[in-house]
What does this fold into?
Amino acid sequence: MRHRTRIAVGPVQFRIGSDWAEPVAALESLYAGYPRDEMRPADATVRLFAARPWRRWLRPSVHIGGDFVVPDALPLPLSMGLLAAEMGMNLQVALGWRRHMLLHASAVAKDGRALIMSGESGSGKSTLAALLGEKEGGGDWRLMGDEFTLIDPAGGDAFAFPRAVSLKNEAIAEVAARVDAARLGPLLAGTPKGDIRHLIPRPEAIAAMHEPARPALLLFPRFGGEAGIEPMGEGEAFVRLTEASTNYVALGEAGFAAMTRLVRETPAFGITYPDSAAGVALVERLWAEAAR
Amino acid sequence: MSAVRTFVDLLAGRGDPAVLAPPDWDGVIGVARSEAMLATLAHRLADAGLPPTVAALFADQRAAAAVAQRQALWEAEMARRALAPAGIEFVLLKGAAYAAAGMACAAGRQIGDLDILVLASDIRRAENALLKAGWEWVKSDPYDDHYYRAHMHELPPLIHKVRDRMIDVHHTILPRTHRITPDALALVSDAVTSADGHAVLCAPDMAVHCAAHMLADGDLQGGLRNLWDFHTMTRDFAAADPGFWGKLDGRAEMHGLQAAVHRAARLSRDLYGAALPGGWDRQDPADVWFRRRLFARDDWGRVTQPSLEQAFYIRSHWLRMPPAMLARHLWTKWRKR
It folds into this structure.
């Protein structure tokens, strides 16, 4: 393809090709601090392309393709090319990666132990992970990722997938107030997922992206309402996480064994919180009291 | 050299993976993925010296394919349990059959839907038994439903509501309206029992069906994989039975599929280096279009010759039904867009 780049996030080497220069330029600036290995063959391919040749210039719209394709996915305008690239990368991992059990969950780590947060879009799992990763006087929480947490089926360790964090709507201002503007991507306003702005993880989080962490606490956050903590049984955590995994079924027995071990060995809680500060406080409290 | 040719050479055993530069792997892996053959390649190169990250990716693929195969065979067992009480016997087709019979092409082969063949006289009862056992219709469109029942060689696809897996129940191997009518009764009555107890087509019929599926029915989507199936199965059948090619010829003629089977043999010679016996080892000028179609992929896995792809799509429909019916069918489908 005319424009191309390579990006390594966690264990996945991506090859991204595009009919336009803009999405590739945006990716290269967002991922400039990530390790680059031009000679490493790609694990996953993403293509951003125009469905018809003239649509490169005339009302340019970006279709997302690659190794795996979602048949009826709608294209995005070129101004949202960066979002298209991010969606393409997520899609290839969600449908193609088999080395680890994938959890649609954010994670942060401290002292080699991982806090994993799973929830639907809008639960605040990305924001909580970003805020923990940015804590003042910080350096003690390492952001592992805001989209996927990878579980090694053999050993049970969690591995990071620290792509640029996708901040949405109100979370943008909240995080932007705490970080250097140079670590933020361009504002993508009015996307199908609302306003989006990417946060580049701290250099330490990127440098440590291959380091495993032992799952120590599973949280299922829900944004809104009174602050509350609800212990969760193994069975419910199991069911929720199978629903949050894109490759649990494809992994067969290995997936079942990994999931069973994860929920048996890791304390789990549902939490509700009215605002981010309360959410972060709740998480810190549970980490101190209940994490294994 | 183009990635798709490198990929074919690696499968054929002509290419040396050690001489590939890292960027070449991108193209080879991209093509292999778009042909749904990455795990097949991973098996073919299981003992080769590979860059470490490629070796790791290939190991993932082999493991994933082994799980997928076990799941596909479980699905066959589920169909057996649904149909056996009604006294309906079936023959496994394609991927699940290759896996059940432990054939070389099954190593790493992706298996999509479960394809089974029953006697035409059993098809209504088979449908009822499957519906009772938890399968349900995928297509709700009345025209599509009618089209399948009136003209196709299979029931409209069914999906299991709990396991989310599709089953295609065939009563023959080509559409009813196709110019060629294979002997479906012979396919079922001459089926053999595989090592794990499932019925599969006898060796020559399996090769005939593979060629028919690729060249007489389909538009060569997934052609490299179908051709790899054909190549490895005919190679192994011939190694086990020196009279195989002669039997295949006779059987293909009986089903009216001699041209398709001979073309599949020539293409497997041209691409994968198959050794063909006398009487098979010929040239046909039209093969060039098939080779071009099979090689029409760039190193991003995209089809490079859309007009050729379109031509093969039209050809597949042309073979499937008479012109007036084709016109009516396309008109109906177009109005529904």
